[in-house]
Amino acid sequence: MTRHFLDIHRLDATTLRAILDDAHARKAARKGRPKGWVDADAPAKDRVLAMVFEKNSTRTRFSFDAAMRQLGGASIIVNAGDMQLGRGEPVEDTARVLSRMVDAVMIRANSHEDVENFARFATVPVVNGLTDRSHPCQILADLMTIEEHRGPIAGKTIAWVGDGNNVCHSFMHAAPLFGFQFRVACPAEYHPDLHDLAKGGDDVFLTGDPQEAVHGADVVVTDTWVSMGDQDYEARLEAFEGYGVDDALMDAAAPDAVFLHCLPAHRGEEVTDAVIDGPRSLVWDEAENRIHAQKAVLAWCFRG
Q: End-to-end alpha-carbon separation of the chain, Å?
């Protein structure tokens, strides 16, 4: 059976926990090794990953490429605009063709529906590297980072401050499966999708007040207020006034609270320099952990 990794809510808690544990183990086993050293089990040996990008990328591109190399495999990287996909070839036709040429496909796409459709017609694993609806690989890296520094994620409280976007959606998907509370503070006009909000059930709380969301939280998370493709920059800046994460807001969280941001950051907007560069920030570990979390995802896909 072909294993796809499209959304966190599509997998059960046991599977997700096993993937996260594997990410921890793979990172620990590499301590002191050079970046190009291949993991002992080399689960991607003789395998090729195609990476298709409709959106610009730094962390997704480098982390998936590094992940495949460390798993013993290889990757082919292409921008969608350089493919026939960018000239109107149907997604399902591209899926059929790439399935004959590579062993897995990672897509960083504009439309979540396109990735779902691609997976329906692919006969190899498809991994969601980001869509307008979700960013599941990012959340695994975030949970891994939290556990490295603050222990098991179960029972923790994570506060999200800002846009109810794709990353926020994936956190909501993860909350009931990993057993943490997720509080979302956002302006009413930029709330999360209600369909995704419902997936979090009683483990997700929505408010318009950042102080209420952050109060006593173990983790404070934010993201850019204006994502790729958004055309309402000035309106967003106005709506999100008062939602920036600064030292005063962090002080409302638990005394040992940590800060996360998936990057890139718009310093001075959603977060201050003092917070992102300060002792409570884990953003650089978070970025690195994209490699290890995605290695675990790919290894799980290949085992299928």
A: 6
